[in-house]
TrEMBL record:
PANTHER family: OS07G0133500 PROTEIN (PTHR31317:SF3), OS08G0163500 PROTEIN (PTHR31317). Residues 202-228 are annotated as: Disordered. It comes from Trema orientale (Charcoal tree). Residues 207-220 have a biased composition (Polar residues). This is Formin-like protein 18.
Length: 451
């Protein structure tokens, strides 16, 4: 089945030049002391904010400079259709940018920045799902100064085709659902999931969902996790295996560090997160591909904090430093999107209030000692948008929708690994639920139900 058409609209190469005033004035902006930022808005999409660097008035923006992304918008086929179906009342589709001087944020409910000017870039989105298009690349005059002395704002606005495979769980992951590939109105089953409990105390007692797995993985998987004495408040041993339609296991997510309540509290803390390993079959056994950590944030957001990193292929050792691909927060109450986007603006909203997380860490940037650098890891192939998974909040029926960039799927196991990761994110919402709240029966061990 063909992938779904998507378009990636990027705004980048931002810069600001402000002419030097011949006479001192209170309204004059001094680049050395006044930072700038801008707010970028596309109809029906969340507002994005980015820093705007100053450059000297006599300098020209280098033509050969690499594209530095400040904001990214992902447009599905339905988004493109809505924008193409404009009426005389809706007007032309435009990208609108407001440029401010001063620091971002608010003071006493009032924006601290001073509006310098606004620019608008018309967008002709027809045909962009099949070819790249540059809508603007260069300088635009902003502000209300006299002609020839106004500030100059540089930006690049372009779109690129970004086709994706779209998958949807037919039920909640803990209910062992089917997974369908979606294209328009067509739904085709491609995977089945099996949720089960792994008995950490007995390596020979494997969950039913793993009976078809290679025997070489049995002692390996049970060796992970903390050996310390377990407190009473913990959630452990969850596992979900993804099978293809022939019944062969093609990916798995296994909870390897229990989700434990911090002493004197009912929440999983950031200092002691629970974790999952995302596993792929290789050479007759399971091998770790990624590690997902999750915890419950404190404060007003009370969200689900998470960090996902790739695990180096170091003879099965998962203690080495990994490459962090995504670290953010989504709303525990409303749910949101887990996103791996290595071209996203790190200063864009992390979703703490809105429930949509963004990848904030640079790709191919190892945590820890830095023993693994650029070019030494095959994982540096991950670029741009990689995947997203939409999950619901606590107490809501969650059937995760997963989008995976075509460029990162070369086989069934590739897609299955992202599906397993999406299941782990969804299950983490429940694993990080306050321990004063009881989980649904599918997530409880049999002995827990008898208590």
């Amino acid at each position: 089945m063909d992938p779904c058409p998507f378009v990636r609209l990027t705004v980048g190469n931002l810069a600001l030049k402000i002419p030097v005033a011949s006479k001192p004035a209170r309204s004059v902006v001094h680049p050395s002391s006044s930072p700038c930022f801008c707010k970028i808005k596309l109809k029906n999409f969340p507002l994005q904010t980015a820093v705007v660097p100053f450059i000297p008035p006599e300098n020209q923006f280098p033509d050969g400079q690499s594209h530095t992304i400040a904001a990214t918008f992902h447009l599905s086929k339905s988004d493109l259709d809505k924008m193409a179906g404009k009426t005389i009342f809706s007007g032309k589709v435009c990208l609108r940018i407001a440029i401010y001087t001063g620091r971002r944020g608010t003071t006493c409910g009032v924006n601290s920045g001073r509006l310098l000017g606004k620019v608008s870039v018309p967008l002709e989105l027809g045909g962009t799902e099949s070819k790249s298009c540059v809508f603007h690349n260069g300088w635009i005059s902003v502000g209300k100064e006299a002609k020839g002395s106004s500030a100059q704002f540089h930006l690049n606005v372009k779109s690129d085709p970004d086709p994706r495979f779209v998958f949807q769980f037919d039920g909640e992951p803990e209910c062992s659902p089917q997974v369908f590939q979606i294209q328009g109105n067509i739904r085709q089953p491609v995977f089945t999931c099996k949720f089960s409990f792994r008995n950490n105390g007995d390596r020979n007692q494997r969950s039913r969902s793993l009976q078809s797995e290679p025997s070489g993985s049995r002692s390996w998987l049970g060796s992970f996790g903390s050996e310390r004495e377990r407190p009473i408040k913990e959630r452990k041993g969850w596992s979900i295996t993804v099978h293809d339609l022939s019944g062969s296991p093609v990916a798995a997510a296994s909870m390897v560090t229990p989700f434990v309540a911090s002493p004197g509290s009912d929440r999983v803390s950031r200092s002691n997160p629970g974790s999952w390993l995302i596993l792929r079959p290789a050479d007759g056994t399971w091998k770790p591909w990624g590690r997902l950590e999750a915890w419950r944030e404190r404060g007003g957001s009370d969200g689900l904090g998470y960090r996902f990193e790739l695990v180096p292929d170091n003879n099965g050792c998962v203690s080495a430093a990994g490459i962090v691909l995504s670290e953010s927060t989504l709303s525990s109450n409303k749910g949101g999107k887990f996103v791996i986007d290595l071209g996203a603006n790190s200063s864009s909203p992390s979703g703490r209030g809105g429930g949509a997380g963004n990848a904030c860490s640079p790709g191919c940037s190892p945590r820890g000692s830095g023993d693994f650098g650029y070019g030494l890891w095959p994982y540096c192939m991950y670029r741009g948008f990689v995947m997203s998974a939409h999950v619901e909040g606590e107490g809501r029926c969650s059937k995760p929708t997963v989008e995976v960039s075509v460029q990162h799927v070369s086989c069934t196991e590739d897609a299955a690994a992202f599906v397993a990761l999406a299941a782990a994110i969804d299950l983490s919402v429940d694993a990080c639920r306050l321990f004063s709240h009881r989980l649904r029966k599918e997530l409880c061990h049999q002995q827990d139900l008898l208590v």
